[in-house]
Amino acid sequence: MSGFAVVYNQQNCLELDKMFKRIGHRGPYLSGQFEGERILMAQNYLEGDISGKPDVILEAGETKAPVFNPRYPELRICYDGQMGNWEKRAKPSGEADGPFREERLLLQLYKQYDRHMFEYLDDAVFAFVISDGKNLFAARDLLGIKTLFYGRKNGALYLSSELKSLIGITDEFYEFPAGYFMDNTYTLFRFAELPQFQPAILDSDLDEITETIRDIIQRSFNNRVDFNVLTGSLLSGGIDSSVIVWLASEAYRNKFGNDARLRTFALGVGESEDIKCARLMADHINAEHHELIVDLDQILAVLPEVIWYLESFDPSLVRSSVSNYLISKYAKAQGIKVLLSGEGGDEVFCGYLYLKDFPPEELFAKQMECIGFLHNNASLRLDRMNLCNSVRVVTPLISGELLNYAMTLPSEYKQKPDGDQKIEKWIFRKAFENVLPKEIVWRLKQEFSQGSGSADVLPKYFEKTIKDKELLEAHASFPMIRSKEELYYFQIFKEHFGSGRALDTVGQWIRL
Description:
41% of the residues lie in helices and 21% in strands. The protein is an alpha+beta fold. The protein folds into three domains: 2-190, Aminohydrolase, N-terminal nucleophile (Ntn) domain (Glutamine Phosphoribosylpyrophosphate, subunit 1, domain 1), CATH 3.60.20; 206-444, Rossmann fold (3-Layer(aba) Sandwich); 463-505, no CATH class. It has a six-stranded antiparallel β-sheet with strand order 2-3-1-11-10-12, covered by helices on one side. It has a six-stranded antiparallel β-sheet with strand order 6-7-8-9-13-14. α6 (239-256) packs parallel to α7. It starts with a strand and ends in a 15-residue tail after the last helix.
């Protein structure tokens, strides 16, 4: 994960510098700029983004960022992404492993297939801009896992990984839509969309399905995690993060010896449910476990900074982001360069509790709707709360192969009827029930903010400190404000980003 800023049709280096400085946290390890005939491009990288030493990254004293492919030196790419199918796609093209392997492959695919290159990126998340100095080609992945924004002014186009780069540059800015690409006419073209109808239901027995799920997740993990820099894992004690730390612990010992202990990190507001379950799981894998226990005052103190980096005021998202921000910052202080995360399991296997309200025949449509929320909601937390601390985050459960397979499973395997209740993510739990503690496998789904405890203390605090009249007055001008808690976050957001077009980039979760 990294960041970039681009100015097209306006050779204003001062504007580019201003944009780029605002996202310096996304890549203090290495950065560079490129100036073409009609374009200015700036790219930065975290240490965890690059395999290889600095002397490999430098060539003839010139930083390779933005990256080029020696086969096509006229092309440059600004890129933030992660490819789960790099090896599969690289073999036919002959692209070698090593530093910037994904960027080189993307340039190869672009040169070979142009706008049809997305057919080969079915297991990748990305935001990128490719240019030969004159023309522009920008794109964002189908789910919008990688963030991207664009703005216009006086015929010029501005693109950046974060909205804050565009504030003060132009008043006309937008979120770059997920599943689209843009050419140098500034026209947006859709290259993919989520399916409207469920694929044919898989006809396999239970053992075969659970084995396939384990195989896909193991393959996804192997393709994304290498431990080349100091790597730890977030651990909430839920099924998603527990599966990831179990896989990571096995891989860590295989690489560094039987006595090696994976570093895990958990956060709680006091002795939260997450803290207790994370301890159980950490003991199960003999991890080097770290806990961060915080209180309300510590949470309130970082809210302005969290909202600045997050670029949202949605209560559910802010609560979970505070927890993510604090534990990521703590892990960074321990020297961690890469954090593993179980993010994605709820979307793939229908883990959100509100999905229990719908009958089986509606579940697929509701799942696609839920996945459609990712681009300006959950993916923001994943991206921003780790990148703001200059930590790369890796998410093996966000896999095109895994999602495509899960879509073919019967609804009752994802939301399993159990008397008058339903067990969310049932098939995922079954796949790993023999390797994880039963208390973890069958633990009720809780959002990060619920399990960590921030969802309990924050709404209560703002309900007491903000008057009913203030909420009514604010709601009259801004109807999207739904609670006193949201009003507080909104006021901070407005100070940073204004109350104009920036509001259109904010996604609001369906429930408070």
